[in-house]
Amino acid sequence: ETGVTQSPTHLIKTRGQQVTLRCSSQSGHNTVSWYQQALGQGPQFIFQYYREEENGRGNFPPRFSGLQFPNYSSELNVNALELDDSALYLCASSDRNRDFPGGANVLTFGAGSRLTVL
Amino acid sequence: AQSVTQPDIHITVSEGASLELRCNYSYGATPYLFWYVQSPGQGLQLLLKYFSGDTLVQGIKGFEAEFKRSQSSFNLRKPSVHWSDAAEYFCVQNTNAGKSTFGDGTTLTVKP
Prior knowledge:
The complex is a heterodimer. Chain A has strands spanning 5-7, 10-13, 19-24, 31-37, 44-50, 53-57, 64-68, 74-78, 87-94, 108-109, 113-117. By secondary structure, chain A is mainly β. In chain A, a hairpin with a 5-residue loop joins strand 7 and strand 8 (74-78). Chain A starts with a strand and ends with a strand. In chain B, strand 10 and strand 11 form a beta hairpin. In chain B, 35% of the residues are buried. The chains are: A mainly beta, B mainly beta. The A-B interface holds A 4, 31, 33, 35, 40-45, 48, 55-56, 58, 90, 92, 96, 101-102, 104-112 and B 4, 32, 34, 36, 41-46, 49, 51, 90, 94, 96-105.
């Protein structure tokens, strides 16, 4: 089975710019979650997508938005970048199965996209 | 709101010694609890999970964790640490399908 792949691995932007990060979910998974991990901290939940709709959101402003596509891949978009947006952005996929609800919580992570905002 | 506390920011142990990493979760009727490990330059890897049933769960790489509802704890243990175990460890709680709450992590250093 293929794992979770993210692109790009590293990128540098300036304040006010926009960025799009991409994620391909693990084969057989139908749910994608995005997390922001600042240096020295644990990952913080941004939002989750299931059936191409946002299904839960953390404490992040609307300039953080996302998409999920029919093949379950996903994008994270961040507008009007701020210096504090510099972080590792992690994508995780999971299998939300009505016969095993807990499966939605078993996350398979990608290696992340390291964003630096100057 | 859910919260996960890992009291130890940094732990150093000698190779071959035993290890215990502490984790306290916020109260939840049916907590789903996990431990993940993050090595430099690598993604987060699931070590083990607890959903229900036996409170002592076994994971990969010789790790185990014990769920104690009375103490709201889910501590991770390993009887004999290897140098390759040096990494950052995260305790995670989830009480619904939408959001996983991570602790701030414990960095493990292994002395030769």
